[in-house]
Amino acid sequence: MDWEERENPKRLVKTFAFPNFREALDFANRVGALAERENHHPRLTVEWGRVTVEWWTHSAGGVTEKDREMARLTDALLQR
């Protein structure tokens, strides 16, 4: 898995690149639908041609196996 681990709070972070804002927003909406389905919500930052996704579990104070699974599922959204 090629997600970066950052501190304060400990979390998984990855930035996805897209050719324009529309495709970035479409991806962010797919991540949002995944989050709702799994009842586990990331921090999303949407910019022109980029979406940064950050997964961590607030109640656990860091990264859990659920966050790692959500990162894998997020990567799989690119296959669509």
Question: What is the gist of this entry?
Answer:
The protein has helices at residues 21-38, 65-76, and strands spanning 4-6, 11-17, 43-47, 50-55.
Set out the fold topology.
Blueprint: E1 4-6, E2 11-17, H1 21-38, E3 43-47, E4 50-55, H2 65-76
Antiparallel strand pairs: 1-2, 2-4, 3-4
How does this model look, in words?
This protein is of the alpha+beta class. It has two helices and four strands. It has a four-stranded antiparallel β-sheet with strand order 1-2-4-3. Strand 1 (4-6) and strand 2 form a beta hairpin. The longest helix is centred in the middle third of the chain and has 18 residues, at 21-38. It is globular. It starts with a strand and ends with a helix.
Proportion of helical residues:
25-40%
What is the strand tally? 4
What best-fitting shape do the alpha-carbon axes yield? globular
Q: Tell me the strand order in the biggest sheet.
A: 1-2-4-3
What's the order of the H and E elements? EEHEEH
Domain unit count: 1
> Helices and strands: which structural class?
alpha+beta
CATH class: Alpha Beta
Report the major sheet. 4 strands, antiparallel
**What is the CA-CA span between the terminal residues?**
19 Å
Total helices: the number is 2
Beta content comes to: 25-35%
> What would CATH call the architecture?
2-Layer Sandwich
Radius of gyration: 12 Å
Using the coordinates shown, work out and report the CATH topology: Gyrase A, domain 2
- CATH homologous superfamily assignment: Transcriptional coactivator/pterin dehydratase
Q: Mean pLDDT, nearest integer?
A: 96
Keywords: Lyase
EC number: 4.2.1.96
Protein name: 4a-hydroxytetrahydrobiopterin dehydratase
GO molecular function: 4-alpha-hydroxytetrahydrobiopterin dehydratase activity
